[in-house]
Amino acid sequence: MQLQQLRYFATVAEARHFTRAAEALHVAQPSLSQQIRALERELGAELFHRARGNITLTDAGEALLPLARRILADTETAHREVQEVAQLRRGRVRLGAPPSLCASLVPDVLRTYHARFPGIELHVDEGGSQDLVRRLADGGLDLALIITPLGVGAPALVTTELLQEDLVVVSAPSGPPPTRRSRIRVGELRDLPMVMFRRGYDLREITTAACRAAGFEPSFTVEGGEMDAVLGFVRAGLGLAVVPGMVAARSGLRVTPFEGDRMRRTVAVAHRKDAPPPRAARELRRVLLEHLGTG
User: pTM of this prediction?
Assistant: First the structure.
């Protein structure tokens, strides 16, 4: 089994089309098909169902794909680690982060990092913590900022807690405040219209869990958005939302902290336990810790 064959296989699996895969790889289609056939003979199983205009993975192909992606990602990491010069004049970092952190913490950290290492390519992948953890496990990310704890079934990761961030209530400045007091209790959200994030979003899980612990199900006027959409809905007066304090501070919305039973989330930086991140990513991790005063 050759790395080139695995790369050809993964490209066909993603394109679901031999011609498009050959074009992406800059090889002739007959050569691509020949290499896939050789891989199938070596493995003793067909990897694709081939029908005119419809290429799908067999069960064997489905089993091989995540392994092939990991092998290719680890191989690329090894090449980059060897090729990186001591001053990090070139390289790449693939960082994953929730949209809320991309709107608050990440820009400041990347600005500092880019000023120190302008030759390093920065790739940012936004997503929920569970999605980012899967990308880490597949080798698609070097580092990820995640909300912990992850729960049962999370892959083996090295995580470092960065901060505990208070969650606050934001509402439209032009509308009435959510409470007459300077702070609000979770129980007061019972009778207030709320704008809610999409399912699987960390902040949705935290908010609904807090409301249920207070004995009620929250009422949503709008649900299903990402961070920018939710802030826009709140600004339009459609309801209030529970968001991280760092995001609220930049939102231009009315901010009301929680009283007593404060809602918090824990932010951590993570990487795979079985594959230490390349040097450029380790430097980004160090800049991140320095920025937060924990390094």
Answer: 0.66
